[in-house]
Amino acid sequence: MLDTTPEPEKLLDVNNIEVIYNHVILVLKGVSLSVPKGGITALLGGNGAGKTTTLKAISNLLHSERGIVTKGNILYRGNPIADLDPATLVKSGVIQVMEGRHCFEHLTIEENLLTGSYTRSVSRAEIANDLDMVYNYFPRLRDRRRSQAGYTSGGEQQMCAIGRALMSRPETVLLDEPSMGLAPQLVEEIFGIVKALNEKEGVSFLLAEQNTNVALRFAHYGYILESGRVVMDGPAAELRENPDVKEFYLGMSDEGRKSFRDVRSYRRRKRWLS
Questions:
Q1: Rounded Cα distance, 112 and 164, in Å
Q2: Cβ pair 40, 195 in contact under 8 A
Q3: Residue 227, phi-psi category: left (phi > 0), alpha (psi -120 to 50), beta (remainder)
Q4: Which tens digits make up the pLDDT trace of 53-104?
Q5: Which residue spans of the chain are classified as CATH 3.40.50.300?
Q6: pTM to 2 decimal places
Q7: Fewer C-beta within 10 Å: the chain N or C terminus?
Q8: Class of the CATH domain delimited by 10-241
Q9: Dihedral sign for Cα atoms in the order 217, 46, 15, 80
Q10: Residues 181/149, Cβ–Cβ less than 8 Å
Q11: Distance of CA 83 to CAs 52, 61, 87, 140, 264, Å?
């Protein structure tokens, strides 16, 4: 019997892009991916795989690092976004939460959150309602709202960065390495909030993450990057059970948990790279 389930609407479409830094360094080599409306899509891979570069190509933040998309195109709701400046892109519904949080350390938590609403022309009442919404998802921030961001913990700063992005009322959030430098318990808490925002507020996420185990538990679909190429993709549940992913990214094999050091033929056995 044919499956008549309609495909979810595509919000973001990245088609075969190449990115070069300093006119010579080829970083992305034909990356293609899509983010459906209402989905959590994970972009996985090790350091230097090209995850952050992919997000910055989408949010048009490459120019500050002398990077440029030289091939392919990026569409949001079917419209090309390469010529939009980052502020216009935020107004269109796409915002990036940078790796390393990047809060304004001299401002309070609440002042940081309010900076996220500066691109919107709305009433103070609407902004106050959005602030309450952020505090409901991140109760810690309500408790620390008068504290200078620079004196809060890494987890609280990560929550602040995500909350600041939510203040722009985005449709799609590009989330770069949300687990970096955080304790496992905090990582679980933040990913749980991401899942709640996705299910209750309808926010779509494209998250770049090295913590493959956590990302594949919360994501609906995943792409694995190696050396600037997408080498594997599929539903998150299928990737979790893939023997290569289990061995090389989750540290598991049919014999149980393994270390990379125990896999002598690590590169040779990465069949998808050949």
A1: 7
A2: yes
A3: left
A4: 999 999 999 988 889 999 999 999 999 998 898 889 999 999 999 988 789 9
A5: 10-241
A6: 0.87
A7: N
A8: alpha beta
A9: positive
A10: no
A11: 20, 12, 12, 38, 46
Which ranges constitute the DSSP H helices of the chain?
51-58, 86-91, 109-115, 124-137, 139-143, 154-166, 184-196, 212-218, 236-241, 243-248
> Which positions ≥6 away from 73 have C-beta within 8 Å?
15, 17, 80, 82
Q: Which residue's structure tokens are 């938590």? A: 109
Q: Tokens at residue 185, please?
A: 């318990």
Strands 229-235 and 252-253: unpaired
The owner of tokens 């973001």 is 12
How many Cα atoms are found within 13 Å in the side-chain-facing hemisphere of 228? 14
Q: Rounded to whole angstroms, what are the CA distances from 107 to 124, 152, 178, 193?
A: 20, 11, 21, 24
